[in-house]
Amino acid sequence: RKEVEQDPGPFNVPEGATVAFNCTYSNSASQSFFWYRQDCRKEPKLLMSVYSSGNEDGRFTAQLNRASQYISLLIRDSKLSDSATYLCVVPRVDSSYKLIFGSGTRLLVRP
Amino acid sequence: EAGVVQSPRYKIIEKKQPVAFWCNPISGHNTLYWYRQNLGQGPELLIRYENEEAVDDSQLPKDRFSAERLKGVDSTLKIQPAELGDSAVYLCASSVTSGTYNEQFFGPGTRLTVL
Lengths: 111, 115
Known about the structure:
The complex is a heterodimer.
Chain A: E1 4-6, E2 11-14, E3 19-25, E4 33-38, E5 44-50, E6 54-57, E7 60-65, E8 70-75, E9 84-91, E10 99-101, E11 105-110
Chain B: E1 5-7, E2 10-13, E3 19-24, E4 31-37, E5 44-50, E6 53-56, E7 65-68, E8 75-79, E9 88-95, E10 105-106, E11 110-114
Parallel strand pairs in B: 2-11
Antiparallel strand pairs in B: 1-3, 3-8, 4-5, 4-9, 5-6, 7-8, 9-10, 9-11
């Protein structure tokens, strides 16, 4: 089983829609999680950090389900500018601080 | 404040040729990372530096890849000789220090094509 798994998509939604992505992780001891956003041919940028049960920032909500070992990212009122790939990131639970990136979920928001 | 700077942005070479990538991290960031990102995949760590010391190079293919960060600031990643499978985007990132809660800032990457 991969350390971090994501549905590659693409998710094709109209403007204004609500969309959610899930990410599963294999290490039950993981404590922190991140969502990075990567635009086409650009570098990844931190979107949101999740340290407890969840986090909310405007239209974006991240929720953590430790029992089922998954994190979700919910985007409300989708904008055209939300079109991007969303990378789920889980740090290794050791002294390496190594970030393990999922393969990403691609979102396309259409007019 | 300037972000992470990388050069070149694009590089096309023939197999068996050498290639080098350069990275200048954000000022004050002690930790520097080199990642490789294949098409449709997330970035994978190649090497991590704490100042000038390589503290995690377990994923660096040492037969052909080398890296250095001599003065604890700029870094160079080299491939010699390049193979077709090395075609990817090579991303440099930096953070204030290492640690789970320290955000990593990525540079724009170098897109390598090996023919």
